């Protein structure tokens, strides 16, 4: 019977260790700016960004890649529409705050440049103040190389399963059940 308590306690200690490891690991992930600023194509690097504004989305192959601004730079981020709405609402309600988004880097899919360039041109046109006389002379000539200048070669993927969380929950449940089982047997509760 005492073994049941020791095993349960062991599982709870492992659960606590996994939680602490997760917090430390998230704390020491790097800012995506370090990857994109160096024109790196490194994949599967755990990164974060402190979102300050969602500029819209680029739909490519029926997937929405959100254009999210952080530190005055824009990034492509793969998040669910629901999460994007949640982040946008938070940022609108708290205009002086940022929203931390954590994920891993993935290479941009081939062919996204054309849609991304259209987004950039529309963005520049809608945010560029020019008078009617200059309208006919005003055109944004943006190439594929410019696309990579704006977005880098990787995007932030937040839709990656984190097995650590699932394992932590399972280990925590097992540890809790074993400990409760021991207490019920020892004190004959029930």
List the helices and strands and how they pair.
Layout: H1 2-27, E1 30-31, H2 32-37, E2 46-51, E3 53-60, E4 63-70, E5 73-78, H3 81-93, E6 99-107, H4 112-127, H5 132-135, H6 144-151, E7 154-157, H7 163-187
Parallel strand pairs: 1-2, 5-7
Antiparallel strand pairs: 2-6, 3-4, 4-5, 6-7
Helix pairs in contact: 1-7, 4-6
Overview features:
single chain, alpha/beta, 52% helix, elongated
Entry summary:
The protein is an alpha/beta fold. The protein has a domain of 131 residues.
What do these coordinates show?
- It is a single chain.
- The chain has a domain at 30-160.
- Helix 1 (2-27) runs antiparallel to helix 7 and helix 4 (112-127) packs across helix 6 (144-151).
- The mean pLDDT is 84.
- It has 190 residues and is an alpha/beta fold.
- 19% of the residues are buried.
- It has a 7-stranded mixed sheet with strand order 1-2-6-7-5-4-3, with helices on both faces.
- It is elongated and about 80 Å long.
- It has 7 helices and 7 strands.
- A hairpin with a 2-residue loop joins strand 3 (53-60) and strand 4.
E-strand count: 7
User: If you compute it from the alpha carbons, what radius of gyration comes out, rounded to the nearest whole angstrom?
Assistant: 24 Å
Low-confidence stretches: none
- Spatial order of the strands forming the largest sheet: 1-2-6-7-5-4-3
- For the termini, the CA-CA separation is 17 Å
Helix content: 40-55%
Structural class: alpha/beta
Order of helices and strands: HEHEEEEHEHHHEH
Give the DSSP E fraction (strand runs of 2 or more residues).
15-25%
Main β sheet profile: 7 strands, mixed
What does the average pLDDT come to?
Answer: 84
The DSSP helix count reads: 7
Global shape: elongated
